[in-house]
Amino acid sequence: MSRPFAQRLLRSAVCPSAPFLLPLRSNGPVHGAWGLVALSPSTRRCMASKSKRRKSRSKLLESELAQENKLQGQLETVLDFRAELQSFSLQPAMVLYPHAIKTKLLEGKDTRELARLVHNTYRSTRNLSKEQKEALAAQIETIVEDLKQERLPHDPIASLHIISYYKDSQQFDQGLDFWKWLLQQDESCADARTYGAAIELLAYQGVPLEVLEELYQYALKRFPGDYSEYHLAPDAILADRSQPIAMSGTRMSLLQGILTARILHGDWQGAYLGLDVALRLYPTQVPQRIFELFIYERPLSEAYKVFLMACRAGVVLKPNVLNVTLEGLGRAEELETTVQEKLSIISAMLNAVRAYAGAGGVPDGVHLGVIVRNLLSLMPPNTEMNFIDEGADAVPAENAENSATDIDILIYDLLGSIMETFAQMGINPTIATFNSIISIGGDLKRQELIDLAIRALHSSELEPTAVTYRALVTAAGELQDEESVKDAWGLLEEAALLRAEKQAVAAGLDESNTPQPKLDKLDWKVLARACRRINDVAFVREQVEKGVFVLDGNVLALIERELGREDKKSANEAQSHASQSPQVSQVSQTQSDTKENVTDQTSSGAQETMTIQERISAIDTQLSEIHEIVLSGKLLDASNSPFIPMSLDENECAVFAPESVLPTPNAPANAKFEDSKMREIYDKFTTDIQSLQYGASSSAASESDSYCDSADAENGSTAQGEEDAKVDEPKTTAASQQLQGLPQGQSPIHFSSTNYTLAELRYVNWVSINELLFDARLNEIVKQTAVDQAMKESKPFERGRDAKWRCGLGMRRKVYRDAGGAAKEADWEKCIAGLRRWRKE
């Protein structure tokens, strides 16, 4: 046997498939079978497959890693976008917006926050330039288009903000187009809150009220909630008036929308019945915006009562709402004819401040300025007073030859009390307050007022402004004080030059490149007017020829017009003062009879003076209460110290009260009046056995939607209608019952922040709504009288907030007297049923 054959035989015997197991010395050259095994096609395919799998796995890992990196980048983009939204940075957010939307990772809440930010930016930024408005409009249009193309997730609150933006910016056509698109979408785009905002938009656009009422009813049916259509009806009944109501789906935002429509269209009955619904359901949680609607849109007598109702419920309104209320009262004070009536308005101002502070608000220097300005306007013009200088204060010299009248002394004493009380609370006057005092001093020809303002300003940390110097020039001209006019003008020039120098330094300009300073055209106008009154026209021309300030042709023409104008005020000064200050004749009579009024207690003049003193004493009491509330940090206990009077006219504090129990100026703050008859009527109107059973089925604890105006919340607070706020009243639990010492199963007593029980708060709100309905009917007659008078005189009808028919109380008193005054007790139920437009059988 040959060796190769033997080797092959041996290998096949050991293992045909593993010849490599043979000892090396028995192996010959590698060829033949081994070569075939190592290079067989199956082996090659196996090895190639493994290699491909390794490469495929590697590519997959690389792809997954790339995808993960891409996702990580997208997440970072979205997170950065959300961070800008949360920090209320609109421009950086809009830079990231195109990249964030491409990630397709945005959610409905992102759309909501973006729309809210654009809306709030528009509402909170004052004096937007044309370019800024155009930029915001373009951003909103981009968002709307992305919503329509479904590149952005839908959200009902985002839709609400977009509609509100269109309303606020008066882009009604664009808003209407967006609303038409929303009507074709499902609940992911629109809900009851969105419908409420849409009704407001359409109301401002002028859509008829009938159409809006139909839309309101349609929304109630489309989004029924827990018997919302029933509970929002004017004659709905609560299961338990002493307990908070907790229902899901009560459409407060929708109610606000229709309230706006009713107010704008003059349906005061429907508006107040809607407010009654809100106060019945949530007596302590009615959104600020609902109260503001009435305060801004209704006549002063109604707005004042609504303001106090909000404070009584513990609702803290914005400071500007208090300012609007005080300004309206100031307008009413201007239209009053006697010192007593004017002092009653000052008392009403302090009553509003007291209520505001008692509800948790914080008065400020702006509010103080309004009160001071209106108090000083009580003083008659052309009354000279001698003063003893005692530091920073000006004290009337009682023994001077031309001594101050009793009324002047009382007013100055009251002014000192007000300033001192507010200063103790840390509330100091603003520069605008001092400017107003200077202006009033000039108008009334009272140098002591101007001196008082200057001394107080110097002792404060405030710096005079251009308005301050302008007021000094004007006041000196009114006093025909030539030296003071020139001195005040010199101060104005110095301030303007210093201001221009600071601006040049800030801009990095040297003296050679500093532009010539320029005065405001109003500065030249007041100078020309003052020089005309002091008969020194040459001084104006001298200032123009000096060439210190830049003057263009328009300013020169303005100066010439002012110099050539006839000074009718100086020619008819006495007649003008008599027409502007009807109380002058009364004050003059009081001045001439001062000694008799003080000594003779039986004269009418004495009674008048004592009445004024009593009013001022009552004002001092109010100041003490305001001081105590603010310093204590506690809310006012309104149940023991009610906001009396709730009406501007003391004879109408309680429209339905018998004359024998009408409150008087001397009534104690905690006076209680018998109202069993009214409570009996209240029970008839607000309780019903069948309705109690019906309403009880929907009283399960859940959430209620709250409508908080997004623009009201500055700096990005909760948006309008954005969140369903849980009812913040304590729940009926065994623990709460034990805390109040109640037996198991008995409902606890719930209180408002102002210490009213919910049952009592609902009752007093119901009474106030009846009074408002009564008051609104009087104001409607006053309005129609004003319309007829305007037509008779061929003059335009005044529609502004300061219109006489809205703020004046004289015509309203006449209408009240002609209507027979307060309703008789026997007619209360019939009267209330008529006012509410439905009768309780």
UniProtKB/TrEMBL annotation:
Region (Disordered), start-end ranges: 567-609, 696-746
Organism expressing this protein natively: Xylona heveae (strain CBS 132557 / TC161)
Biased composition (Polar residues): 599-609
Coiled-coil region: none
InterPro entries in the record: TPR-like_helical_dom_sf (IPR011990)
Gene3D superfamilies, sorted: Tetratricopeptide repeat domain
Protein name: Uncharacterized protein
Biased composition (Low complexity): 574-592, 696-710, 734-746
